[in-house]
Amino acid sequence: MKLEDRWNDLWWRLGVQSPDIPATGIRLIAEYSGPDRHYHSRTHLEDVLAKLDWAKTALLKTAELPLTTEAQREMFDTIELALWYHDVVYDAKLKNNEALSRDLFLTHAAHFGLDEKMQENVAKLIDLTASHKNAASLMERIMTDCDLAILGAPKPEFDQYDANIRKEYAHVPAPAYK
């Protein structure tokens, strides 16, 4: 499924049908496609969403999720929305990318009239990606696992990740980077 379609489908499932949704999705995808995005790129966005799809399939197959069908849908939609926004603002020279990404999400969510509880949950997940610490709930663990799965990738994939991160941090002298 094309990213644009996936974006639109997510908001439709969330009950938001603003005419601004498609254009907002296109702008978000464009942010991930910027020239300084070597790792935190459209490819990363596609990868974390694929990891979420895998996790969802694996967890639903076990039939051990302690949630109703509606709660499962809400949990996975919450994670997906957080993944869309978690790195939308990314400048390796800044220390507050996650906070800026969260704030952009909250601006969009308020504009679209997204439920306040959903806004709070998504914002919390985005904030969690600043350190990936204290992932306590199942939803938080899935979110961090999707974002950090690259660390367990086969060596060629990990090496590409490592090289791309270094490109994003090219402004940092090699001794300090190491």
Description:
- This protein is mostly helical and 178 residues long.
- The chain is 67% helix and 0% strand.
- It is built from nine helices and no strands.
- The chain has helices at 3-13, 21-32, 42-62, 69-85, 97-112, 116-128, 138-148, 155-168, 174-177.
- Helix 3 crosses helix 7 (138-148).
What is the distance, rounded to the nearest whole angstrom, between the alpha carbons of the first and last residues? 39 Å
Q: Measured on Cα atoms, how large is the radius of gyration?
A: 16 Å
Number of strands: 0
Order of helices and strands: HHHHHHHHH
Number of helices: 9
**Structural class category:** mainly alpha
Share of helical residues: 55-70%
Query: Which percent range describes the beta-strand content?
Result: under 5%
Oligomer kind: single chain
| Unreliable residue runs | none
Shape: globular
Major sheet description: none
Mean pLDDT across the residues is 95
Please render the helix and strand layout as text:
Elements: H1 3-13, H2 21-32, H3 42-62, H4 69-85, H5 97-112, H6 116-128, H7 138-148, H8 155-168, H9 174-177
Helix pairs in contact: 1-2, 2-3, 3-4, 3-7, 4-6, 4-7, 5-6
Give me some keywords for this one.
mainly alpha, globular, 178 residues
Question: In brief, what are we looking at here?
Answer:
The protein is 67% helix and 0% strand. It is mainly α. Helix 2 packs across helix 3 (42-62).
